[in-house]
Amino acid sequence: MKFIATSLVIPVYNEQANLEELVRRCIAVCDAQGDSYEIILVDDGSRDRSREILRELAAKHSNNLVVVLLNRNYGQHPAVMAGLAQSRGNVVVTLDADLQNPPEEIPKLLAAVADGCDVVGSVRMQRKDSFFRRMPSRILNAIVRKTTGVMMTDYGCMLRAYRRNIVDAILQCPERSTFIPILANGFSAKSTEVHVEHAERVNDDSKYSVWKLINLQFDLLTSMTAFPLRLLSIVGVILSVVGFSAGIFLAVMRLIQGPGWAAEGVFTIFAGLFIFTGFQLFGLGLVGEYLSRVYDDVRGRPRYFVEEILNLDGDPGSVPEKAVINIAKTGENKS
Ligand code: UDP
Ligand code: MG
Question: How far apart are CA 272 and CA 242, in angstroms?
Fold first, then answer.
């Protein structure tokens, strides 16, 4: 198989106005880089002329351009997955087709990979999106940072570079709701971020409606943490404790002050209510804990990836069977 240094993976959905310029600029950047490359354009079921344009472009640049046509619209991340599955490069760079991520920034990412990073993210320096497109992203970025503890400033920016082993790891995750940057970070040993320009969307609007965006945020949240489920238990316990304390307080006060105190026992009802609501929430959270484990197993993500095994040819008795299986896999990937 031909060695390819860099693959670009670009999802396309109704981008007829941008495609030609996109391909022209990407080719210019890659040519200047001097290494072998391929540009993989994945059409995510576009309804405009994107498909025809892609066919023409594929015929014109048959050396470097790979076009994958999906039969209908599946969404940005599934489209990127389809591109990753097709990619052969040692390093894979993803970017958007709308030219908001300037292809001219790609060398910066490649330089960071050459410095030894597995995953290189990017931060949009001056994000040129409308306020209503920016706000949800900002809130989301903050939540992600808090809950995962992974310091990535800008999860939404898809101009990213991944080393081959990370791409292979991502491809081994069969789950349907994916958020690729999070998945990649989960497997990366060393990641960094570079600052990139962000251009205004010149031709037509964002392809994300509010609902699609909300859906994506939930994909992101559920793909990395089961904390919302645990939150139920925590709230439940707090409510129960409050209920118990109130109950004890009321009982003591009643003994001291007599039955007329606290509106003839109305508050006692509240204390009981708190306790039971708390129990219910706690129970629900407990079910959630099981659910999150079932979810983890159903997703079937690989537990770990072996990078290398030393002395594999030594005494075979001393090599755990699992390790042998894994090295076979990584060996396959490298070829
Ligand atoms: N996209 C896609 N499928 C979709 C929606 C978007 O492949 O259902 C592509 C789109 O063509 C673009 C990228 O995903 O290349 C990002 O989309 P967009 O620029 O609309 O998102 P935003 O910049 O608002 O985050
Ligand atoms: Mg965009």
Answer: 10
Is residue 31 within 8 A of residue 118, CB to CB? The reply is: no
Q: Is 3 exposed, middle or buried (0-12, 13-18, 19+ CB in 10 A)?
A: exposed
Evaluate whether 39 touches 8 at the Cβ level (below 8 Å).
yes
Cα of 210 from ligand 1 centre, angstroms: 13
As a whole number of angstroms, the distance between CA 108 and CA 91 comes to 13
CB 30 within 8 A of CB 23: no
* CA–CA dist 108, 194 (Å, integer): 7
In this structure, are residues 240 and 282 in contact, taking their beta carbons and an 8 Å threshold?
yes
Pick the ligand that lies closest to the CA of residue 206.
1
Q: Which of 93-102, 211-220, 314-323 has the highest mean pLDDT?
A: 93-102
Contact 67, 58 (CB under 8 A): yes
Location of structure tokens 């082993």: 165
Name the DSSP class of 319. Answer: S
Residue 176: DSSP 8-state? S
Query: What's this model's pTM, rounded to 2 decimal places?
Result: 0.74
What is d(CA 200, CA 238) in angstroms, rounded to the nearest whole number? 47
Residues with CB under 6 A from ligand 1: 11-13, 15, 44, 73, 75-76, 79, 96-98, 100, 133, 156, 206-208
Distance CA 308, CA 185 (A): 20
If you take atom 13 of ligand 1, which residue's CA is the nearest one? 96
What digits encode the pLDDT tens for the residues 96-137? 999 888 999 999 999 999 999 999 998 887 666 677 767 777
**Ligand located closest to 83 CA:** 1
**Termini Cα distance of the chain:** 8
